[in-house]
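Hey, quick one: can you model this chain's 3D structure?
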Amino acid sequence: MSSLSARLLLAVSLLLLVFFGATIVVLDIAFRKAGEQAQEDILDGQLMALLAAAEPNAAGELIMPIDLPEPRLGTIGSGLYAVLLDNKGKVVWQSRSLLGLEIPFDAAPEPGVHSFSRLTLPDNTPLMALSLSVEWELTNGDYRPYTFNVAESLDSFYAQIALFRRQLFGWFAAMALILLLSISLLMRGILKPLRQIEEEIGEIEKGRREALTEGLPTELNSVARNMNLLIGSERGRVERYRNTLDNLAHSLKTPLAAIRALLSEQLATTFTDKIDEQVERMNDIVRYQLRKPASFAGDSFGVARVNIEEQLMKLIDGLGKVYKEKDPRFNLNVDKLAEYRGDTGDFLELSGNLLDNACKWCESTIEILVEPCEGGGMRLTVSDDGPGIPADTAELLLERGMRLDESAPGHGIGLAVVKEIAASHNGEVTIVTSPLGGAQISIAIPA
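Sure thing. Here's the predicted structure for all 447 residues.
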């Protein structure tokens, strides 16, 4: 069940099953109760018709006319039955429809009380019965008790319920099928943007598209925007690695050519041949790096959290050995709430370039502060007590190849690389005067 459409259809089907099932039960109960009430009303009407037709004879006994208003009472086995009993339970009169049958009516109720009951004939035919006891006033003013009993077969009633249930299930099954088809078509339209994103990601993987289309529904627009930012970040990282390799290869080509020229001026010996062999090997490496595709730059999208303090301590330890003669003093302060999520190599390149510049220009002290930005992320600030950077040249130093002091070692690409990496994370670089008197460079990278 990996398909989102299938999951939605299954969930909707279960909801419809529960909802329609509950509705069917409620309607069935309501129809059954209404049918039973109607059946009781019919029996009550039949009993009132018998009361109206009854008349006392000359002997003072209650009798029923031969022809009754209800013809079913005169038809054998019609399903409608009537019995008149005296106060001793003796049958005074019974309908012709009851010929050959005996109905076990309940005991006579209190006078004036309508008593409904469910009975069963010997052949298991279900009946609904109604009994009413009355005190009949005779012509001489005496009162004599009688009990009127009527009963009707429930076969037709149960047949109607069965038919209603079949129709009910048929209607709801058809409605459920129509609803599921409608919801399926509706979901196909609603999920169209998701399929569009899936297709566009496939096109990006094949190199046919640069980014995802924006202008999608609100719920997906932020996903597409973040995906585009992520893709842009990866492309930026690839470009930085390409530039780094290009810069390194070109930087090595000149000294390698000079070494080879010097060797060519020397007399050929086994030693010079070995050196020339290594130089040639280095040339091969440089040529290979110049041709090497930049796609090697990373295996993931780089969203893991980097241990900032641990990586900075490694850098400090290494730079302390590189600048052993200057012996700079590092003051490190890392806020535990600050976090950097990305490639560890990017973080090392960011912080390594800043710390290397600080070590190169400081007098004795370097302060490193890492704190969270507003809303999360990281702000890395490196300050030194060196000569500082003039405000009018701060922006120029962030350009590739720009250097403030040509006499100092370097290639002028360190801060440019820092700016490029920060920009790929939607961050920014600021250069101001440090409280220590030197330069203070801050990199703010949001969450």
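One thing worth noting: Residues 292-302, 405-412 have pLDDT under 50 and may be disordered.
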